[in-house]
Amino acid sequence: MALRTISSQLAAQLDKELMGPEVGFTLEQLMELAGLSVAQAVVKEFPYSETRKSQVLVIAGPGNNGGDGLVCARHLALSGFQPVVYYPKRTTKTPFYAQLVNQLKFFKVPVLGAGDNWAQYLDHTKTLCVVDAIFGFSFKPPVREPFGSILQQLRHAQQNLPIVSVDIPTGWDVDEGPADSDCIIPSVLVSLTVPKPCAAKIDTCETHHYVGGRFIPRDFALKYGFEPFPYENLDQVLRLH
Ligand SMILES: NC(=O)C1=CN([C@@H]2O[C@H](COP(=O)(O)OP(=O)(O)OC[C@H]3O[C@@H](n4cnc5c(N)ncnc54)[C@H](OP(=O)(O)O)[C@@H]3O)[C@@H](O)[C@H]2O)[C@@H](O)CC1
Ligand SMILES: [K+]
């Protein structure tokens, strides 16, 4: 079956409508479900076991994609994993992000900032995977620092260390896909609500694809031009391939 996708522009419009006066979701609600979805995809891909490594590096960017990563880290901690968060550029536009960081501290999850030695966690003998929550559907190339250097280090690490990308593989053009051969290649992509066109450019031999962010009714999906996804039971993610 053809992959159902919507453009970055339509995704932003859908987001706005969900949080508009008629529907009335808050960003906090949607982000909680989005982060929970990503955590569930990690658990499905790398089931927790007492005898294997359980450290997960979550890299959070400055926007809502980063917020999804902060929520995901909390759910991973609840599921027995040992997340470490690298959050180099923090926004003060709303107090909500600082609250998410406080919740991580409450769960004893380390939150590293600019200047901290985050790259030590790229050691694949100790870390199970990296959650790429750097940029989502509002990314506009070219990438600015410090994120260019972070992506370069992820590219080097990805041979041995799987990357789980939230919504968009960071650095990819949301509608066109990977801009050049230097882009990261995630092992797992978790599209939120509905895949964006770049998801059609993944190589399905290299990248497992999930959809998550299960927060819209059937008629709303159809209005935005896609068939709803057949999630099972209360699952927050559905593996597409
Ligand atoms: N309904 C859904 O599906 C839901 C989706 N959700 C999630 O929200 C995500 C979209 O979030 P978003 O709109 O906040 O944008 P996002 O992609 O995080 O990036 C914006 C930030 O990046 C920055 N920035 C941009 N380009 C840059 C560059 N080249 N180099 C450096 N920086 C750059 C930009 O900075 P600015 O340009 O403003 O200075 C700004 O700070 C979406 O993908 C999904 O994960 C859920 O949380 C809720 C429900
Ligand atoms: K991402």
From TrEMBL:
Enzyme class label: isomerase
Protein EC: 5.1.99.6
Protein name, per record: NAD(P)H-hydrate epimerase
Cofactor dependence: K(+)
Alphabetic keyword roster: Cytoplasm, Isomerase, Metal-binding, Mitochondrion, NAD, NADP, Nucleotide-binding, Potassium
Chain residues that bind (6S)-NADPHX: 64-68, 136-142, 167
Catalytic reaction annotation: (6R)-NADPHX = (6S)-NADPHX; (6R)-NADHX = (6S)-NADHX
Listed GO CC annotations: mitochondrion
UniProt superkingdom: Eukaryota
Coarse class of the protein's main subcellular location: cytoplasm
Classification via PROSITE patterns: YJEF_N
SUPFAM superfamilies found in the cross-reference section: YjeF N-terminal domain-like (SSF64153)
Its biological purpose: Catalyzes the epimerization of the S- and R-forms of NAD(P)HX, a damaged form of NAD(P)H that is a result of enzymatic or heat-dependent hydration. This is a prerequisite for the S-specific NAD(P)H-hydrate dehydratase to allow the repair of both epimers of NAD(P)HX.
Domain called YjeF N-terminal: residue spans: 11-228
UniProt organism field: Lachancea thermotolerans (strain ATCC 56472 / CBS 6340 / NRRL Y-8284)
Record family assignment: Belongs to the NnrE/AIBP family.
Sites where the protein binds K(+): 65, 132, 170
GO terms assigned for molecular function: metal ion binding; NAD(P)HX epimerase activity; nucleotide binding
